[in-house]
Structures are given as structure tokens and as C-alpha cells.
Amino acid sequence: MKILVTGAAGFIGYHLCSKLLSEGHEVIGLDNVNDYYSPALKVSRLKELGIMDFDFQVEKIYEGQEGFTFYYLDLVDAEGILTLFSSTRPDVVIHLAAQAGVRASITHPQSFIDSNIQGLFNVLEAIRRYPVQHFLYASSSSVYGS
I want to staple 9 with a disulfide (CB 3.0 to 4.6 A). Which of 17, 42, 132, 146 is the partner? Predict the structure, then answer.
């Protein structure tokens, strides 16, 4: 099965990609490797998945270990997301990517709107155009309100 995992360089995304690969699935990882927390930590996780020459080039595709392809791409890039879906045609999408942190959302709300809302919309729009068998949306990363 071909599975797209957004947030692939994050803690949960990395471990999920590793598990799916060990089960013989073809995995497409996507992440923008932002600096909300250590990009070096995210890059080290990508190295564990066979991405050895990561150089922070926007919209670059990297081949990792057998069965793993990584897209360095921001969810806000609607055209890039559509291109990814049209070229890879995943069977399943597991959407884990999100901008984390309630405190930071108060001081930098636009980055949260971009990633957590616009990014989700872009993924849903791509799924509408290129249907998948299953879609799993794990979290918005943060819960707001009283």
C-alpha cells in the first residue's frame, strides 16, 4: 500500500514511517522541517530513513531507504500539494503535520492559521481531486478555548 505521511520528520511521523516501512508499505513522507524546534533533530530522523543529502531546498524530492520518498514541502503550498498527489497517487493519507504550541499561537497566530487550517484545507482539496481509500487526521496539535 502507498501511504502519505505528513509531518514525517516529527517524532510521531518519523516513528510511523519507520513502522510502515518495516511492514513493507511504500511511504511518502512530507515535512517543511520548520524551526519551531530543532531542525537538526528532524534532519537526524530523516537520516534514519535514508535521506543523507538533505539541504533545505524548497520543493525538493529525496529518495531514502527502499520504499521511502521524502518531499520537502510546506502544506501552505497548494500547487505543490496538488502536484505531489497527482504524481504519487497515495492510497492512504495520514495527516500528522501541524504547528504546535498554544503559547506560540498567541504571539504568532498567522503561522498557526497557515499550517493548521490552510494546510489541512490544501490536503483535503488534494484528496477531493485525487481520492484516497483512507484519510486519517490525527490532531490539530493544539486545543484552544476554555
Answer: 42
Instruction: Look up residue 121 and give its three cell numbers.
Output: 484545507
Distance of CA 35 to the CA centre of its chain: 15
For residues 77 and 122, give the distance between their C-alpha atoms in angstroms, rounded to a whole number: 8
CB proximity list for 96: less than 8 A, separation 6 or greater: 5, 6, 7, 8, 10, 12, 13, 16, 138, 139
pTM above 0.85, yes or no: yes
Q: Which amino acid is at 66?
A: E
CA distance 85 to 123: 9
Give mean pLDDT, residues 28-54. Answer: 89
CA distance 22 to 112: 33
